[in-house]
User: What shape does this take?
Amino acid sequence: MCLSTCRGEQSLTLRAARCARSRSAAALSLSSRATLRNRRSSAKRCEGPFRRRCIQVCSSANEDDLTISSANREDYVNRISKTRRLTRTRIASRPTKVLRQAERLLSARYGTPRLGNKREPISEIVFIILSARTRGTEHEAAYRRLRTRFRTWTEVRDAPLKRVQETIGKAGLSRIKAVQIRRALRQVTRDFGRLSASPLGRLDDSSLEAYLVSLPGVGQKTARCVMLYSLDRRVFPVDTHCMMLFENLGIIDSPLRFEYAQEPLQNLVPLALRYSLHVNAVAHGRETCLPTRPKCDVCPIARLCVNRGR
Ligand code: SF4
Assistant: This one.
């Protein structure tokens, strides 16, 4: 019987969306708290054959349990595609050529840097949770402190909350991030029987993304960053810098809300360009196209930019 308790709205929403029994509930508005309560009760009623379809639940999960059924995947895809109807921002009809030109110019300038991201998925999840709503490089310092004070992620998972919070220190929202990191580590342990990300490598892209966004503190953009940096998946996370790049290239005429932007903008970027365009867009946003004082006179993509000098 599925008796797991829900940890936060995001986790609950996805669990309900994945659950075969609550498919009709998942099709309803995602923002309504009343609907959320309905899903909570639907999710908790699951038992018997449906248990195997819920990758959140089973602490004794084997590999079969990690496969989301095609019906549940369809729900997830429907939920994502619904976001496309929620935007009025116009998207240029044939952006591939300008994206290729921009990628070539940006990679020549910035050299496709790693930006401090980690190869190991658990480390990357922690690193990205730390980087949320943090300016500058404070999150990198917080990550180094965590690695210095705790020898393994298991020690972080089992440490008192206050100790983790103190270690994160000035990275901002330290208590929330400490809670999210410990919960994410515990959830991975519960789902896979150990604190290891190796089972993630066996999931297909949509199942992997669905699993990652079910972790506390991990949204769709974060999930795609983990997939891109640590699991070599060809996805394109849209962050502030990427959004700015798309706007400056005239591909969108105004910024989209991030939760609505991920899917439509990713679909515009050819698979082979996704990693390079993402990391070079971030480097460009940090070094040259600064939000308040863009350095247009030294910009490598100035001739492609529709906002030059504004
Ligand atoms: S020309 Fe200026 S505004 Fe346009 S991308 Fe370059 S730095 Fe940003």
Summary: The pocket of iron/sulfur cluster is lined by residues 248, 288-289, 294-296, 299, 301-302, 305, 307-308 (CB under 6 Å).
